[in-house]
């Protein structure tokens, strides 16, 4: 099954708050984002944001230039339905991160929780990194959350690549300067423990 079909099927079968990765609030992401000192109209993109509540919390925090990108149209529609009229203030990009055309050097923050870790082949990672380098402003921020080595080998029934700090730093390469990493334990709505590694990088200007 191709990735788009996989994700559309997942989002049509399971309610958003029963997905394995669901959190009522992405507290660590929010906390780090609020600590970056971004102006409220700084362009922010949540890549593989799906139906995550991060966009709701960023709107509540006053951010006004938020983009949510996902390969699943159903996931984006679910987030839009939850937000109601507020969804009109968000840019929704529906497509595959490998191929979608993103504006050059637009985003001051690129957030990714649990999307990058699905990219197993070097070629897929390369395409993602090209998009990341193109889309982020010089000195832009990257906050990325991926499964840590002690997490299960699969997420949503798909194999994932698990990262420690050394791996993620070397995978991202010299264009990204590591600022900090920490682990964060997520427990799925079904009670399964998934350890995430969260890292903050800055694109070298
Ligand atoms: C595990 S979910 C995480 C969702 C969200 N980031 C969160 O933390 O709640 C992974 C998300 O990545 C999206 N996704 C997977 N592959 C993608 C791709 N190639 N391009 C864009 N989105 C993708 C899926 O549709 C799904 O919404």
Name a few traits of the molecule:
single chain, 205 residues, alpha/beta, Rossmann fold, seven-stranded mixed beta sheet, two-stranded antiparallel ribbon, 6 helices, 9 strands, 29% helix, binds S-adenosylmethionine
Round the Cα radius of gyration to an integer and report it: 16 Å
Structural class call reads alpha/beta
Query: What is the β-strand count?
Result: 9
The CATH superfamily turns out to be Vaccinia Virus protein VP39
- Bound ligands, named by name, code or SMILES: S-adenosylmethionine
**Major beta sheet summary:** 7 strands, mixed
Structure, explained:
The chain has helices at 3-13, 27-34, 54-60, 73-83, 122-135, 165-172, and strands spanning 44-47, 66-70, 91-94, 107-113, 136-147, 154-155, 158-159, 176-187, 193-203. The protein has 205 residues and is of the alpha/beta class. The protein has a single domain (3-203), classed as Rossmann fold (3-Layer(aba) Sandwich). S-adenosylmethionine (SAM) binds next to helix 1.
Q: What's the quick description here?
A:
With 205 residues, this protein is α/β, with parallel strands linked by helices.
Architecture blueprint of SSEs:
Elements: H1 3-13, H2 27-34, E1 44-47, H3 54-60, E2 66-70, H4 73-83, E3 91-94, E4 107-113, H5 122-135, E5 136-147, E6 154-155, E7 158-159, H6 165-172, E8 176-187, E9 193-203
Parallel strand pairs: 1-2, 1-4, 2-3, 4-5
Antiparallel strand pairs: 5-9, 6-7, 8-9
This protein binds S-adenosylmethionine.
């Amino acid at each position: 099954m191709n990735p788009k079909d996989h994700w559309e099927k997942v989002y049509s079968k399971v309610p958003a708050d029963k997905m394995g990765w669901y959190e009522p609030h992405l507290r660590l992401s929010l906390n780090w984002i609020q600590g970056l000192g971004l102006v409220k109209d700084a362009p922010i993109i949540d890549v593989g944001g799906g139906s995550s509540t991060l966009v709701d919390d960023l709107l509540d925090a006053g951010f006004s230039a938020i983009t949510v990108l996902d390969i699943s149209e159903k996931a984006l529609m679910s987030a839009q339905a939850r937000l109601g009229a507020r969804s009109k203030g968000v840019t929704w990009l529906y497509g595959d991160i490998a191929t979608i055309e993103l504006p050059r050097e637009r985003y001051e923050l690129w957030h990714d929780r649990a999307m990058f870790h699905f990219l197993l082949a070097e070629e897929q990672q390369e395409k993602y990194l090209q998009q990341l380098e193109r889309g982020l402003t010089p000195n832009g921020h990257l906050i990325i959350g991926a499964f840590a080595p002690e997490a299960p080998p699969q997420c949503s029934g798909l194999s994932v690549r698990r990262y420690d700090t050394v791996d993620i730093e070397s995978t991202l390469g010299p264009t990204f300067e590591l600022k900090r990493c920490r682990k964060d334990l997520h427990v799925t709505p079904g009670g399964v423990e998934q350890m995430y590694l969260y890292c903050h990088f800055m694109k070298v200007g």
